[in-house]
């Protein structure tokens, strides 16, 4: 079965697009080699049309996944501040049946979260059978901000790569497909977006002074992302690096990654009871 859109739309085919963005294991991944901007050979309007088409298809596949009720999808989204995590989630998942979709956000652990191992809070909110859960930040914070800010010694965060691979393998073995997306924004574009937030009274609330502390550690964060992605992108639980300097192409590409994941799962609606086709409701 072809996984490409019918009728064809502008830009690369689905498989070509996701192949371009995926990080294959053992390919000597370097974040600096990946673009923060890519128009994928599409105008903005073409990207928006493709996003809409992709969302419609995700809607159909999500309903099938729900009807099948056996497997689930965990869609992890990570990024530097202002790369567009919230906007991507809103644009890609809007219009889907809320009954089958959840979004979980992760802040600095507090209360009982801080009293347990770092995966405790994560495992509880992984998707149920038939569901899709998007993580806005995730268990990867425990090898990113935790590493960069020195919250734990190196030997502690370094051994977590192994935990993360094994945790995701467990989820995979038990029926959850794990897909991870890094929204790759440039330092210049982040500066522009921070300034826009500060200048717009409607958006100013999004800005925290601490955002500038993280920005000052840009190089350290990029190194932490590079290592995390290289260490945990596996054939079954891949990372995708999505250019995030342009919103419409970013949203389109993320939607296509989710669609591709669902196309590959190919969820099957259950067989109806026999003999239903003859029934006439009076
Ligand atoms: P967001 O930036 O995601 O929109 P916030 O501004 O509330 O939301 O930021 C959440 C903060 O929580 C981030 O600074 C992130 O680094 C932090 N955080 C998330 N998970 C952890 C963790 N496991 N350990 C420490 N800090 C974390």
TrEMBL record:
GO molecular function, one term: polyphosphate kinase activity
UniProt entry keywords in alphabetical sequence: Kinase, Transferase
SUPFAM superfamilies: P-loop containing nucleoside triphosphate hydrolases
InterPro entries tied to this protein: P-loop_NTPase, Polyphosphate_phosphotransfera, PPK2-rel_1, PPK2-related
Pfam families xrefs: PPK2 (PF03976)
Keyword Transferase attributed: yes
Residues of the Polyphosphate kinase-2-related domain: 43-265
GO BP, one annotated term: polyphosphate metabolic process
Name of the featured protein: Unannotated protein
Species of provenance: freshwater metagenome
């Amino acid at each position: 079965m072809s996984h490409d859109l019918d009728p064809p739309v502008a830009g690369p085919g689905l498989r070509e697009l996701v192949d371009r963005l995926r990080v294959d294991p053992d390919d000597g991944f370097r974040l600096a080699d990946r673009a923060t901007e890519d128009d994928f050979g599409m105008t903005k309007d073409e990207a928006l049309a493709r996003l809409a088409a992709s969302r419609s298809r995700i809607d159909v596949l999500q309903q099938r996944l729900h009807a099948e009720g056996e497997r689930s999808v965990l869609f992890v989204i990570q990024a530097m501040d202002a790369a567009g995590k919230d906007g991507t989630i809103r644009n890609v998942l809007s219009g889907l049946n809320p009954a089958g979709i959840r979004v979980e956000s992760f802040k600095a652990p507090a209360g009982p979260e801080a009293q347990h191992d770092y995966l405790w809070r994560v495992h509880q909110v992984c998707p149920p059978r038939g569901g899709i859960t998007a993580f806005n930040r995730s268990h990867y914070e425990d090898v990113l901000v935790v590493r960069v800010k020195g919250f734990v010694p190196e030997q502690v965060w370094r051994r977590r790569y192994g935990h993360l691979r094994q945790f995701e393998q467990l989820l995979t073995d038990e029926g959850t497909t794990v897909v991870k997306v890094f929204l790759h924004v440039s330092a210049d574009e982040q500066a522009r977006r921070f300034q826009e937030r500060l200048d717009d009274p409607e958006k100013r609330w999004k800005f925290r002074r601490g955002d500038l502390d993280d920005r000052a550690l840009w190089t350290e964060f990029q190194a932490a992302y590079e290592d995390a992605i290289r260490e945990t992108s596996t054939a079954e639980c891949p990372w995708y690096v999505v250019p995030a300097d342009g919103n419409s192409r970013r949203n389109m590409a993320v939607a296509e990654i989710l669609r591709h994941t669902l196309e590959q799962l190919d969820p099957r609606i259950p067989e109806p009871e026999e003999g239903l086709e003859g029934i006439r409701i009076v």
